[in-house]
């Protein structure tokens, strides 16, 4: 670091939600040096959640979802120019055009991109697309405006399910294909996955679970349908590939950082680790691309694809970039996210997949209004509300305090039968066609180790 922490040169790679909020926080904290923001898209930072919701319903144009600026950042913007490499010894970011940007401190906020369809020839068919960028959303909205006879959605995670919901709200026929046993099961486990499946079918979705799409068929260069692993065929004019996200770390190959397919590893203060596990003091990480330890979840490395986490982690990273050691603080926020689909408003705190049991403490799946609380080894680790969000703050306090599971009386719906926890049925990610939006880089909590019994001789 050169001189005073509030001076020098800072480069932010990733003109994203995390990148923008970090830049704003740097200026709020008094950083007066040179600030450069690098982004691979030509557009300034914009909000992604509306892309699978309001944009697909025609309520807002994809180009109108720009992020509001909390303050001027007085930055040099390098948009439409991806980063291509990092020289940590020389402290320079290499851009795709060959330019080298020197830095004193660097923030990596390159996020994720949509996982593409694995067959490039099939992926190139007219009518096959992913949904991640504003251009993707604009193109998909145009295809839906044309009134296709059927839309195929491949993958039933949050993005795939929200796309299917928008299609049904538009009155379009939609087939959803999911390798796992139910929609959303990779994020919420079996109990709420079953509710999501019932809700999709009640809204007219042709939901196919436990199957994979083996190939996409074309007719004159246009998408015409798909073959499924159970031998069935789906005729459709649009296919949306919703197979999860890929973390944008390839540009860091050879940099010496602990970067790979699961993200860039960092400490709780957002400082990147090098490949030997030694923390750096001039490179920071924030947002979807970050992997960080969390004490509430046994210090396993967490990767989160959540809007709120990107903001909170960016603010912590920026604070620590311009603060002396004793003044630095950790990013220990409890993960939280929400989704709106098929008439359900789903909100979550904690990590539902970090669980071995779940119990419904309020409402019921039949009512489509409930609160489910998750536990692991006898303590509360997550809560999910469906059309009943007002109690989540209470359960967040239970998560933060490591309260016993199942939770005691106080938030449940008055007197009734004792709470009956059931297995949370968190699947192995390998059985899903989409990735979970929260990933714990460690053992799965419900994966039991085999015990070998030796007979006494």
UniProtKB/TrEMBL annotation:
Span of domain FAD/NAD(P)-binding: 9-314
Pfam family, one: Reductase_C
Keyword Mitochondrion attributed: no
Region annotation (Disordered) ranges: 403-431
Domain Reductase C-terminal: 337-407
GO MF annotations, alphabetized: oxidoreductase activity, acting on NAD(P)H
Compositionally biased region (Pro residues): 404-426
Cofactor(s) needed by this chain: FAD
Keywords: FAD, Flavoprotein, Oxidoreductase
Entries under Gene3D superfamilies matching the protein: 3.30.390.30, FAD/NAD(P)-binding domain
GO cellular component, one term: cytoplasm
Protein's name in the database: FAD-dependent oxidoreductase
């Amino acid at each position: 670091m050169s001189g005073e922490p509030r001076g020098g040169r800072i480069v932010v790679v990733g003109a994203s939600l995390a990148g923008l909020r970090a830049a704003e926080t740097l200026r709020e904290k008094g950083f007066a040096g040179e600030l450069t923001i690098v982004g691979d898209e030509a557009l300034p930072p914009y909000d992604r959640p509306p892309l699978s919701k309001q944009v697909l319903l025609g309520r807002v144009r994809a180009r109108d979802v720009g992020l509001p600026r909390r303050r001027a950042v007085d930055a040099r913007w390098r948009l439409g120019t991806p980063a291509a490499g990092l020289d940590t010894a020389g402290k320079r970011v290499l851009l795709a055009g060959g330019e080298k940007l020197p830095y004193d401190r660097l923030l990596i906020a390159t996020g994720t991109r949509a996982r593409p369809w694995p067959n490039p020839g099939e992926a190139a068919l007219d009518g096959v697309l992913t949904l991640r960028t504003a251009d993707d959303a604009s193109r998909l909205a145009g295809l839906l405006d044309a009134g296709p006879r059927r839309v195929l959605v491949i993958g039933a995670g949050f993005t795939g399910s929200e796309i299917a919901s928008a299609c049904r709200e538009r009155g379009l026929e939609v087939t959803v294909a999911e390798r796992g046993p139910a929609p959303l099961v990779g994020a919420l486990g079996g109990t709420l996955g079953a509710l999501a499946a019932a809700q999709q079918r009640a809204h007219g979705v042709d939901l196919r679970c436990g199957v994979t799409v083996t190939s996409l068929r074309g007719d004159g260069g246009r998408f015409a349908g798909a073959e499924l692993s159970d031998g069935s065929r789906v005729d459709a004019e649009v296919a949306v590939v919703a197979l999860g996200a890929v973390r944008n770390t390839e540009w860091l190959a050879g940099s010496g950082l602990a970067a790979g397919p699961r993200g860039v590893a960092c400490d709780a203060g957002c400082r990147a680790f090098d490949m030997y596990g030694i923390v750096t003091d001039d490179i920071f990480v924030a947002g979807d691309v970050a992997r960080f330890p969390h004490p509430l979840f046994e210090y396993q490395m967490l990767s989160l694809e959540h809007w709120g986490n990107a903001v909170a982690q960016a603010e912590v990273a920026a604070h620590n970039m311009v603060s002396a050691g004793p003044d630095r603080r950790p990013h220990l926020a409890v993960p939280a996210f929400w989704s709106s689909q098929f008439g359900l408003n789903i909100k979550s705190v904690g990590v539902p997949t970090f669980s071995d049991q779940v119990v419904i403490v309020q409402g019921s799946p039949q009512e489509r209004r409930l609160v489910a609380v998750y536990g692991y080894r006898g303590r509360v680790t997550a809560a999910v509300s469906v059309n009943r969000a007002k109690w989540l703050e209470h359960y967040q306090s239970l998560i933060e305090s490591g309260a016993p599971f199942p939770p005691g009386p106080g938030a449940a719906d008055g007197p009734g039968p004792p709470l009956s926890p059931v297995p949370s049925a968190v699947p192995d990610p390998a059985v899903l066609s989409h990735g979970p939006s929260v990933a714990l880089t460690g053992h799965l909590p419900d994966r039991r180790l085999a015990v070998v019994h030796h007979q006494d001789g």
